[in-house]
Write a structure and sequence with these properties.
The structure is a single chain. This protein has about 140 residues and is mostly helical. Helix 2 packs antiparallel against helix 7 (about 125-140) and helix 5 (about 85-95) packs antiparallel against helix 6 (about 105-120). The longest helix has 19 residues, at about 25-40. The chain has one domain. It has helices at about 10-15, 25-40, 50-65, 70-80, 85-95, 105-120, 125-140. It is built from seven helices and no strands. About 75% of the residues lie in helices and about 0% in strands.
């Protein structure tokens, strides 16, 4: 679906402004926390193992490395499910499972997927201000 729902938001402006200051770890934290908030709202069973894995790997990545192929496979299946909002969130989560360093573009793309997931369920005007505020708060906390 990938839309431009983030264009022109205060969050998008702030993310662009601090793009050079954030690290891979901070971008990942932003995207993971935001995806987890979406998971609290819509709860996709297919992504539970991925969220558990991503939370645990933050503490002990080496020990859990053997679980990664199974987790990736489960998320890839979720990307191909019929339920479009699940596809969108699963796409963002799948990117979090990739070791390639995150950039502001990657973070924005993942967050746009989550916004597209919201848009599958409610009109953008019903969530745009709220989610923009949530993202600004996350970004402020993470970028300190």
């Amino acid at each position: 679906m990938m839309s431009d729902l983030l264009d022109g938001t205060e969050f998008d402006r702030r993310l662009s402004a601090c793009a050079e200051q954030l690290t891979d770890r901070e971008y990942r934290e932003l995207v993971l926390e935001y995806c987890q908030l979406c998971q609290e709202v819509y709860w996709f069973e297919q992504l539970e193992n991925a969220f558990a894995y991503l939370t645990l790997t933050d503490h002990d990545r080496e020990q859990l490395q053997s679980d990664l192929p199974d987790v990736r496979s489960q998320v890839q299946e979720a990307v191909g499910e019929y339920f479009e909002s699940l596809n969108e969130v699963a796409t963002a989560v799948y990117r979090l499972l990739d070791d390639t360093p995150f950039s502001s573009i990657d973070a924005r793309t993942c967050i746009a997927h989550v916004w597209d997931a919201h848009a599958c369920n409610v009109h953008p005007e019903e969530f745009r201000c709220r989610e923009n505020r949530v993202l600004r708060e996350l970004l402020s906390r993470i970028s300190k």
